[in-house]
Amino acid sequence: MHVSKGIRAGDAFILTPWQRQLINALYERRADGLLRYKRSVIGLGRKNGKSLIGSLIALYGLIEGEHGAEVYSAAGDRRQARVVFDEAKWQVQQSPALSGICKVYRDAIEVPSTHSIYRVLSSDAKLQQGLNPSTVVFDELHVQPNAELWDALTLGSGARRDPQIVAITTAGYDLQSICGLLYGYGQKVCRQEIDDETFGFWWWEAAEGCDLNDRAAWLEANPNLAEGLLDPEDMEIAVRQTSEVSVRRYRLNQWVRTAADSWLPQGAWELCRSTLDLVPGAATWVGVDMALKRDTTAVVLVQHVQDKVVARAKIWLPEGGVLDVSAVESYLREIAQQYDLQEIAYDPAFFQRTAEALAEDGFPMVEYPQSPQRMVPACGNLYDLIVNQKLAHDGNPIFSDQVLSAAQKMKDSGWTLSKGKSKRKIDAVIALAMASDRATTTPEPVAEPGFFVV
Predict the structure, then answer these.
(1) Which of 5, 113, 370, 439 places its Cα 20 to 30 Å from the Cα of 304?
(2) Consecutive 10-residue averages of pLDDT for the chain (454 residues)
(3) Can you tell me the distance from the alpha carbon of 50 to that of 44, in angstroms, rounded to the nearest whole number?
(4) Exposed (0-12), middle (13-18) or buried (19+): which is 299, by Cβ within 10 Å?
(5) Are 167 and 53 in contact (CB under 8 A)?
(6) Contact at 8 Å (CB) between 378 and 434?
(7) pTM (2 d.p.)
(8) Strand, helix or coil at 247?
(9) Segment 105-132, tens digit of pLDDT
């Protein structure tokens, strides 16, 4: 076999030490002779030969696997699935030994003597329920929109004596995706929090929060760099000219909060961490972002303390898919006993009935629809508070995660905050934008005491 691309293109393919260790581990066998790992996930930064490794796994399953083997290259779309298949196809065509036993077609490679076949799959999981795969190479699992294709292929291999399903991928941005869940599962297996000797997990990534210019971090995520198979100058150019989110995700193989660039400069939120606290009895503004089913609900309190806007968040997760609205109302009544509430700004979408009940009891409710006209200036105001270190928070990890998970969404009038393509929750940062906007801008005249619309 030969290397098809990169610095060593045309050279005979010889496994590097790290590749040899990976392959030896991947094909470790139990005392009964069967493969130890039935499901495996391999995580590497880009340009580390994932496609070549995938082609080796596929060809081994095709040629050395059981009689009547069914080998599949799968991915989020057919074009991506062909990447590994085309690499394997090229290897067969370049090898007299392999081409002597294989028949090569556009979308398949066959070994007639064993009735074994290697095919490319489309991403339509509904068409794959009848398959009986013996080996699957799932390329770039992080782009898979749901678990349907992964489940169809893994469950379909149940009738095989010695199946092997291997995902080879870079990091993604959604830890609740099938790739993110498998990554989290693998981490727990490595930490021995879960005992699963059938799950293989090998992941090269830089340390969280590392400096993008740290060459040691580059090496942690890119084993080919140490072997001289990646150009260090190319890494330098990527760090200088590519967005931080892209460098961390694709070159350092780190999971990121959103597919888009962060709405905040790196480290800006952490610089706002402070020991300043809310002052009992002081003027306080509140933002409420309410959800009833899938999202969280957040109530954020802000005050002017010294020269800062101090913020604290209370966040609820729906239990059993439903939020207890009464718990939110009880919390608002509780804080009314502790602080001098100036306004409670809320989106009326899911909170109107509760807001009306609170207004009847004298609470200063402010209807705050999340329209671009409201949210564009509110998000810009919050950005200024954070980057200028005029906001202070206590480092609450759930609050921080929701702030940092937001992405910019462009509107005709400017930008607002959204989830982007991520499924991470951002309700707390929306509530923070609402509360800080009301606390730092001059309110419009109130037409009706206790209940008004802005």
Answers:
(1) 370
(2) 59 83 95 95 92 93 93 86 91 92 94 95 63 92 87 82 94 88 96 95 92 93 89 88 84 83 82 96 96 82 97 88 83 96 92 92 94 92 95 94 87 83 84 96 53 51
(3) 7
(4) buried
(5) no
(6) yes
(7) 0.69
(8) helix
(9) 988 999 999 999 999 986 654 556 678 8
Same domain, 293 and 414: yes
Exposed/middle/buried for residue 214 (C-beta within 10 Å: 0-12, 13-18, 19+): middle
The CATH number of residue 424's host domain is 3.30.420.240
Tell me which amino acid residue 407 is. Answer: A
Sheet-wide strand order for 164-169: 103-104, 108-111, 116-120, 70-74, 135-139, 164-169, 39-43, 199-203
372 Cβ contact list (under 8 Å, min separation 6): 411, 412, 413, 414, 416
CB atoms closer than 10 angstroms to residue 76 = 18
DSSP result, 272-330: TB-S--PPTTSEEEEEEE--SSSS-EEEEEEEEETTEEEEEEEEEPPBTTB--HHHHHH
Q: Which of 203, 226, 241 is where one domain is finished? A: 203
Residue 230 lies in a domain: no
User: Whole domain around residue 428: which residue ranges?
Assistant: 268-453
Q: How far apart are CA 80 and CA 15, in angstroms?
A: 24
Q: Residue 249: inside a domain, yes or no?
A: no
Query: Taking Cα atoms as reference points, which of 341, 278, 333, 286 lies closest to residue 310?
Result: 278
Q: How far is CA 137 from the centre of its chain?
A: 21
Of the candidates 282, 452, 454, 436, which has an alpha carbon nearest to the alpha carbon of residue 363?
452
Residue ending a domain, among 150, 177, 203, is 203
pLDDT in tens, 251-285: 999 998 776 667 888 788 999 999 999 999 999 99
CB 54 within 8 A of CB 231: no
